[in-house]
Amino acid sequence: MAQVSLNNLRFSKESSEVSLDQQRESFKQKRFIAMPMAGTIVWSLIGISAAFLSEQAITWMLYLGTGAIFYLGAGLSYVTGERFFDKKAQKNSFDGLFYIGLLMSLLVFAIALPVAAIDHTTVPLSIGILTGLMWMPWSWIVQHWVGYFHTVTRTLGIVMAWYLFPEARVEAISAVIVAVYIVSLITLERRFQAINAQ
Predict the structure, then answer these.
(1) Per-residue pLDDT, 16
(2) Tens digits of residue pLDDT in 110-145
(3) Would you state the pLDDT for residue 48?
């Protein structure tokens, strides 16, 4: 495949000559650490504070905290250089696909909320799993294993923690998620450094 300078591409209605393969290559050049950094921070705070809060407060913290990950990630993106809302950023079909995957994951709340109304102890289980689902389409887009690893390991780890630690489910599930995030962050940064070194 011919080497293409992707940094200078601009995607618009007029630039239909930019192929999906080129857009995918451009998408793959990104760093992708702002959101996992935000997730690591939020889940760490949830896990640490769970030992000191009432069950009702923990439930609200799970809802509000996981809802805040996107906004915290957006803020961190200006520190990491990803700049989520940069108006000068190139338009890319795969950004849209990723956000559709994100929306799909969030729609699973339609299942999580009624189940939580019956049994509130399911909240860390359901939210922990559903907020990790978006890594699957991301992994397919960038053609890298870390997203598949993240979703599968996170899901299996959460289910095991939920059954093995019934008295400390939030703490255990948070620990699983943070551990998976740390591995993912290290892998993503190494991947980004390797791309820059090419």
Answers:
(1) 55
(2) 888 899 889 988 999 999 999 999 999 999 999 999
(3) 96
Calpha distance 76→66 (Å, rounded)? 15
Residues in the chain, how many? 198
Integer Cα distance of 116 and 51 in angstroms: 20
Q: Which of 109, 35, 39 is nearest to 79 (CA)?
A: 35
The pair of structure tokens assigned to 172 is: 């255990």
| pLDDT at position 10 | 46
Q: Is 20 within 8 Å of 93 (Cβ atoms)?
A: yes
Element (H, E) at 11: none
User: In the numeric block, which tokens belong to residue 150?
Assistant: 């993240």
pLDDT, residue 15, reads 44
CA dist., res. 129 & res. 156, Å (int): 9
Residue written as token pair 């980004």: 192
Residue 122 near residue 112, CB atoms below 8 Å: yes
CA 12 from centroid of its chain's CA atoms: 27
* 8 Å CB contact between 92 and 50: no
